[in-house]
Specification:
Blueprint: E1 3-5, E2 13-15, H1 27-32, H2 39-47, E3 60-61, H3 71-81, H4 98-113, E4 122-125, H5 128-139, E5 145-149, H6 156-161, E6 167-171, H7 183-195, E7 200-206, H8 218-229, E8 234-238, H9 256-265, H10 271-277, E9 278-283, E10 296-300, H11 303-312, H12 320-331, H13 333-360, E11 364-366, E12 373-377, H14 387-400, E13 403-404, E14 406-407, E15 418-422, H15 428-453
Parallel strand pairs: 3-13, 5-6, 5-7, 7-8, 8-9
Antiparallel strand pairs: 1-2, 4-10, 9-10, 11-12, 12-15, 14-15
Bound molecules: pyridoxal-5'-phosphate.
């Protein structure tokens, strides 16, 4: 697929899909035709010929952050919560109806945020994707930039750039053991962007991380928070995997809201600065396996943002019907607690299955404790240390092994040879087959290499 640089100020790389200029679309419409990553096309093709017990030559899709592991529990529960309230046919508050805002605030406060959440600080939209789109619309001008520690979730580029022309500014951590960025690296990224006339206006953190499945230590969050807010830079913490910490780790999950509250109590930041610049995103797609329901929210105390959502929220509102069913489900604390624990148990089981397979063929990976990813190190299989070689290996895994992975290049990681593996998009019995394919591929490749070097 042909690659070129975007003509806007974003600096992102895009795919022309053949370079044809559609006559009937605007310049921005034309830009929106471009898939944000070349692997999206492969994903659509693989999806149409997916592996199943009755299609044993099909593909395994391990490049999508979806979980099927606990949907049986959600399915039964949501059916029991679905009824059509008499007001469902009317417009409702475009920042989200009161019942779902109450239920989300209570669930988030109880299960992961650790601070009191006022439902009037919650804005609901159709998924975190829509939340990010509106957030960038509201806080940035075209040509502004957003700092993001790399590697990061590939679709962030689209979320900030496709409508709002905000430039992603990947920050490459030098510490490749923890991948934790330092403020010196942040400073360097800000200076680098400034040389291109790009003003870094937002710092976007994902905790737990995609694609690493790890947590930020509280001390790092505090350091980054103080660094950004004192510069009057917005900090947005995407905590969409906050209820998916399944493994043991040195660090506990700590929400940015809690870190900010502590900073106010320690008089390191004023409550006004925190209200203006600190925000958290959460959604139902990941921890609850409800990608298709399209529900996400922003927690913010910024009055202007809250007012803006009241107006702009209409473009990506969630249907009253879905809001009602979710509110009923989330108000049931006993169900939520049981579900979250059971889902973590299932995530852990699948993660262990995958990593045992990798260990059995001596493949290195970054140990994860949360979310639904494994960051796999396949540098030893590259023919040379280049992204061209990474692309060739990705293609070989897709064609020979019929497994679709996310290449590290798409996650904006600077060193070639790493791949994100999504392991929750299939039940454990299917994952077992995918693992056998991957490990056989690795062994075959090593044997071939040995023969050719003999
Ligand atoms: C870190 C992160 N943020 C946001 C999203 C998008 O979620 P949603 O389905 O709520 O739009 C994803 C999906 O993979 C994600 O991994």
């Amino acid at each position: 697929m042909e690659q070129h640089r975007c003509s806007c100020s974003c600096g992102a790389s895009c795919c022309t899909g053949g370079g044809r200029q559609p006559r009937s679309l605007s310049a921005r419409g034309t830009k929106a035709l471009l898939p944000f990553s070349p692997y999206i096309q492969a994903m659509n093709e693989a999806k149409s010929f997916a592996w199943s017990p009755t299609n044993p030559h099909g593909y395994f899709l391990m490049a999508t952050a979806e979980s099927v592991l606990s949907f049986d529990l959600i399915h039964d529960k949501i059916r029991s919560c679905r009824e059509i309230p008499p007001t469902a046919g009317l417009y409702s508050n475009f920042r989200g109806g009161q019942a779902l805002r109450n239920a989300l605030a209570k669930m988030m406060q109880r299960t992961f945020m650790g601070v009191e959440i006022d439902p009037s600080h919650i804005c609901i939209s159709s998924g975190v994707t829509a939340v990010l789109d509106l957030f960038f619309f509201a806080t940035c001008d075209p040509g502004d930039g957003c700092l993001i520690p790399a590697p990061y979730f590939p679709a962030f580029d689209n979320d900030m750039n496709i409508r709002n022309e905000v430039a992603p500014l990947p920050v490459q951590p030098k510490d490749t053991h923890t991948y934790i960025p330092t403020v010196a690296e942040m400073d360097a990224a800000v200076d680098e962007a400034a040389k291109r006339n790009v003003r870094a206006r937002v710092l976007l953190i994902t905790n737990p991380g995609n694609p690493l499945g790890t947590l930020y230590p509280e001390a790092t969050l505090k350091e980054l928070l103080l660094w950004a807010v004192r510069r009057e830079m917005h900090v947005l913490s995407d905590e969409i995997y906050a209820n998916s910490k399944f493994g043991t780790s040195e660090d506990e999950f700590v929400s940015l809201e809690k870190v900010a509250q502590n900073a106010v109590e320690e008089k390191l930041l004023s409550p006004e600065m925190v209200a203006e610049f600190v925000h958290t995103a959460y959604g139902m797609s990941k921890d609850f396996g409800m990608n298709g329901f399209r529900v996400g929210c922003l927690h913010t105390k910024n009055g202007d943002l809250l007012n803006l959502w009241q107006n702009m929220g209409m473009f990506a509102a969630v249907s009253n019907d879905t809001q009602h069913a979710l509110a009923v489900m989330l108000q049931d604390d006993t169900f939520v607690d049981f579900y979250v624990e059971e889902n973590k148990r299932r995530l852990k089981n699948s993660y262990n299955l995958l990593t045992s397979a990798f260990t059995s063929v001596k493949l290195n990976y970054m140990p994860a404790c949360a979310a639904m990813f494994c960051w796999l190190d396949l540098r030893s299989l590259l023919t040379e240390c280049t992204f061209e070689a990474e692309r060739a290996l990705w293609k070989e895994i897709l064609e020979d092994c019929k497994v679709l992975l996310t290449p590290g290049e798409a996650c904006h990681y600077a060193e070639p040879g790493f791949f994100r593996v999504c392991y929750a998009s299939m039940p454990p019995e299917h994952l077992q087959v995918a693992c056998t394919r991957l490990t056989s591929f690795v062994e075959k490749k090593r044997r071939k290499r040995k023969l050719s070097s003999a």
